[in-house]
Design goal:
The protein is mostly helical and 182 residues long. It has 6 helices and no strands. Helix 2 packs across helix 3.
Length: 182
């Protein structure tokens, strides 16, 4: 069980990293997005607010969903949902559609921490849970370190919409590895 639990923790770490990559891609690419969509400062604030409000409300919904359907299914649904929202951000043509997709992303991404914590509680004895939580949570910092330079390079050659498709694709790859192994 020891080797398997560390594999599960690695999966949760990567999910958390992908979660934050999907989140920060917007802040890195916003100059390009604003140039193309012509967002005002107020509209930019509303788009960010849509994500934050949805993320806050989503904790209530996603926590209950994961408790009811379990970690395996709950995590997979959350990541498929947030990957779809990230990928469909490429369809945004204005502030309203961009705010909608960011809101959908916020709702779905709120499932990461309830699922990650539940996974740790299922795979680790109490004495190791704090360590496991710290390790998977390091994914947030890894994403914050590697995301900006990668996205900055990608936007030059691929454009901002492709960056959202790539992060969405990472989520779908993760689900393909998660479902048969959890």
């Amino acid at each position: 069980m020891t080797r398997v639990r560390w594999w599960m923790l690695a999966m949760v770490f990567f999910a958390t990293t992908i979660n934050y990559l999907d989140r920060i891609v917007f802040s890195v690419l916003i100059p390009e997005i604003r140039r193309e969509i012509h967002l005002t400062d107020q509209q930019y604030g509303f788009v960010n607010g849509a994500f934050q409000i949805a993320y806050t409300v989503g904790f209530l919904f996603m926590g209950k969903f994961i408790a009811r359907y379990g970690t395996r299914i709950g995590y997979a649904v959350a990541i498929v949902w947030w990957s779809l929202a990230a990928g469909l951000t490429t369809l945004a043509r204005g502030a309203v559609s961009l705010g909608f997709w960011r809101g959908m992303l916020g709702l779905a991404e709120s499932g990461n921490f309830p699922a990650a914590i539940k996974s740790v509680s299922e795979w680790f004895p109490k004495k190791d849970r704090a360590l496991a939580t710290g390790l998977f949570n390091a994914g947030t910092n890894v994403a914050s370190m590697i995301g900006p330079p990668i996205f900055a390079a990608m936007v030059v050659s691929l454009g901002w919409r492709s960056c959202f498709l790539i992060t969405a694709g990472l989520g779908f790859v993760w689900v393909v590895l998660w479902l048969p192994n959890y």
